[in-house]
Design brief:
heterodimer; A: 250 residues; alpha/beta; four-stranded antiparallel beta sheet; B: 489 residues; eight-stranded parallel beta sheet; 14 helices; globular; SufBD_N (chain B); Fe-S cluster assembly protein SufB (chain B); SUF_FeS_clus_asmbl_SufB (chain B)
Amino acid sequence: MALLEIKDLHAEVDGTEILKGIDLTVNAGEVHAIMGPNGSGKSTLSYTLAGRDGYEATKGSVSYDGKDLLDMAPDERACEGLFLAFQYPVELPGVGGTTFLKTALNAKRRYHGEEELDAMAFVKTLREKAKALGMPDEMLKRPVNVGFSGGEKKRNETLQMAVLEPRLAILDETDSGLDIDALKIVSEGVNKLRDPNRAFVVITHYQRLLDYIVPDHVHVLSRGRIVKSGTKELAKELEANGYADYVDAA
Amino acid sequence: MVATTETIKQVEELGRQKYEAGFSTDIEMDRLPKGVDEEIVRMISAKKGEPEWLTDWRLKAFAMWKEMPEPDWQKVAVPPIDYQDIYYYAAPKQEGPKSLDEVDPKILETYEKLGIPLKEQEVLAGVEGAPKVAVDAVFDSVSVATTYKKTLEEKGIVFCSISEAVRTHPELVKKYLGSVVPYSDNKHACLNSAVFTDGSFVYIPPGVTCPMELSTYFRINAEETGQFERTLIIADKGSYVSYLEGCTAPQRDESQLHAAVVELIALDDAEIKYSTVQNWYPGDENGKGGIYNFVTKRGACRGRNSKISWTQVETGSAITWKYPSCILQGDNSVGEFYSVAITNNRQQADTGTKMIHIGKNTRSRIISKGISAGRADQTYRGLVRVLPKAQGARNFTQCDSLLIGATCGAHTVPYIESRNPTAQLEHEATTSRISEDQLFYCLSRGIGEEDAVALIVNGFCREVMQTLPMEFAVEAQKLIGISLEGSVG
């Protein structure tokens, strides 16, 4: 059974149809890249899958681990193992990074009927994972994303992913706003999390991210539809020729 | 203790005789009828066995109260209060719930969430036959309280009810009572001066650092929390005390009007930290039945280098009218006010502080965080006044308001008066909403909507919450979440 199976998904934002029939199958252990020009519906797809208010699926189905994903509340989807790494991570003034992650992890544990982690046990786990990503302890105490540089924000998203251990991670333009060093660090973090039981959907405009996070499948999204699918070679071709062919085809 | 009980009995006897002479006969003898007049004021004083000066003081206050208008400058709508429909002494219990089954299930849910044991739930909910004081329920034995009392005595610290202090430390009470909040201050303080029956008294001797947080929980002879509480705290030279008032659990009370007075006095190099968590019953969703909390709290930094710090977390009451203030008389003295006020549903709050700079190089700091949800309305009202001799005075004020939903209101009314050109005064104010982005970010991490709101609001209040003593901080954090339940979505 596929981990994620999207069939003929249509979605609207403010009454305008943005996704016009997406079909996509993602199996555990796979990395799928979704590429497309601005306005093709990349972010709408990630928000619709994560359940953001205002992104309304109007037709089609999304099955996640055999369950109807569209029927679940956004926090329920997260507890079921879906993770969205934000293109623009949100600042939470006054909310310490450690508190935030502990609240999130314990919400998930509660959902699965597991015992909540106490502060000591949690901090130990958190420090280990942060160390692996080269994040100083001091960053964990700061309020979530407040005053973080672009690179720090994306690294923080990766840390959250490492702590919450999702089964399906959607990375929404993780490369935007990153210089090459930060891109390497974040990609390394993601690669460490690659696992036969975990799948990634990497959404990006540019090919360069895929030099570091090498996908099994590449899809081109244009005007709300997947117009071509292929291997990582497809990404190289797009880099050379641009999206023009596919925009016209759609 | 034994002596005290005897004294009370004697006084009650005395009162009884007078009472029989003054009133119709068929009323129970340990109570006074509803309403207030000069005779009632005299009776209260007699029942407490008070000296003549105090009786006179009460009577003067009462005479003035009759003439005094209700304050009308605040931005809350107060329904007219029938002062003659209130019991001023030993109010009889009125049809309290017979058991927890009769208590509003919403309140029980809250108790549940705060993890309050059943026995204490009964006390808080005012179930008939439940003990009147939560001491036993909270600490499960009087011995804990006794141990504390002994430690305090060894240090020469006085911590007792105000009535007991009038008998055991009359010189201190006479010197300081009404010296910070004169009875003429305002209508509510004036009534309190005339009829107060409960409250705490604390005296910390010179050079003594009180070894524990003092809380009304530890007041071994605590009486039922009263409607007209009077608290007096004196920190002598070079001493320190931290005092905790209130309770995070929602407290029910039959009496709607609460008019307390708190006076703090800090002498040279002394410091008083006063923390409050106020969670009186706010009424139902339409505001029906909630408490009117009209409190006058003021501290005087009389000595050089003294410091008074107020921290309050206000989540309860239908109407809150409260301005804990500092009079900075001593040179280099410091006043602080840290406040979190949450109003939901139909609650109204007009709260803030006054910092009066009199001495040289006096400093004050005001951090106010207001959160409004539902159809609630909230005002921060603050005064910073610098008098001509307050050379080098400084104030920093920060007022932040957070709105949840589209039907609530938040207002900031700062008054700044400076009569010394060397003063430095800063004021910052912001108003914001919980953004949809923030909420979705939390949801996408698996955090449910109500927990997300609690998390974001606690973050918003962090600066203030950090000033709370540990005992209070954890519970207060939970309370913030509970107070805002149902405010989103």
